[in-house]
């Protein structure tokens, strides 16, 4: 069975388990995962199995050729009006079973009130509309071999790009210049895009976890945090390293050592079985034990795939569900001291049957860069 067929079957089965006769997939990231379509307007309708299966992808006239090229023939590929929801949906509603109306699920986290009203108009009183939550996102947490391969390659080229940019030195260049050079280098090495705007934060600016690069020269004798990622065939990578531009204080080195110990210890705990909450606690206990518990305010990590932030989560608020083989997560503890400095170290990890496989190859001991 092809990956496309396998995904359709998994989703149809999950919808059936939820008691849904049809599922409307409107989140474009989910449509891409399910069908391969990369355009900006599409709706997938899926349900049933065998001769009773419904597999329809709707888009408008702008994408007629693209949808034929990208979407495999297991899907009935149709052109509709630009708003998509209308007769095509109504004509494929399953018949009522006695007094029970067919149940049609919709992605309530991805749909607007206006779109929901249009769906109601199309369906009328012929079906029951049911919020389906994150049904597709839950399936996306488990990556197949092709997805792992794309993310691995994105991480590889991102590592090459950073090595190239940092090898040119940091002192005297602005944070914004380094970020731009890093973006260009990733594209030159094969990335189709960046996963997110690179973070380059030096000195006290490094105490902002999501700092925006400034037109401020990087000074000697400071810590510089760089968080970056490449996108390849739609799939993202994510990594963070913190560098020193010359000699830094004993406090800065001590904090770096705490973060490194927390990162490596929690990284070694990543495997099938524990929950994201349990893995987060491994790093959090080390950082809190060193007296910096309040300075680690974000979760330990998150899933990465077609989106830079997706499930599963490694955090204090993560579900108790166990991590599983095929998930890809970041492990990124940090300590942020406002007005002083910050340190974050992050790797991207595939959970395997035997443990985990780290996708990043750059060293994690404190590197001194001119």
How do you describe this structure in short?
The chain folds into 2 domains: 3-140, Creatine Amidinohydrolase, Chain A, domain 1, CATH 3.40.350.10; 145-368, Creatine Amidinohydrolase, CATH 3.90.230. The protein is 33% helix and 22% strand.
Present the secondary structure layout.
Layout: H1 3-17, E1 22-25, H2 28-35, E2 43-47, E3 54-59, H3 64-70, E4 76-79, H4 87-90, E5 103-106, H5 113-123, E6 128-131, H6 135-140, H7 145-166, H8 175-188, E7 193-194, E8 199-202, E9 223-228, E10 230-232, E11 235-236, E12 239-244, H9 250-269, H10 276-289, E13 301-303, E14 310-314, E15 328-331, E16 334-337, E17 341-344, E18 347-351, E19 356-358, E20 367-368
Parallel strand pairs: 1-5, 3-4, 5-6, 12-20
Antiparallel strand pairs: 1-2, 2-3, 7-10, 8-9, 9-12, 10-11, 13-14, 15-18, 16-17, 18-19
Helix pairs in contact: 7-8, 9-10
Protein described:
The protein is an alpha+beta fold and 370 residues long. It has two domains: 3-140, Creatine Amidinohydrolase, Chain A, domain 1, CATH 3.40.350; 145-368, Creatinase/methionine aminopeptidase superfamily (Creatine Amidinohydrolase), CATH 3.90.230. The protein contains ten helices and 20 strands. The protein has helices spanning 3-17, 28-35, 64-70, 87-90, 113-123, 135-140, 145-166, 175-188, 250-269, 276-289, and strands at 22-25, 43-47, 54-59, 76-79, 103-106, 128-131, 193-194, 199-202, 223-228, 230-232, 235-236, 239-244, 301-303, 310-314, 328-331, 334-337, 341-344, 347-351, 356-358, 367-368. The strands form six sheets. A six-stranded mixed β-sheet has the order 4-3-2-1-5-6. A four-stranded mixed β-sheet has the order 8-9-12-20, covered by helices on one side. It has a three-stranded antiparallel β-sheet with strand order 7-10-11. The longest helix has 22 residues, at 145-166. It is elongated and about 75 Å long. The N and C termini lie far apart (53 Å). The relative contact order is 0.11. The model has no long low-confidence stretch (mean pLDDT 95).
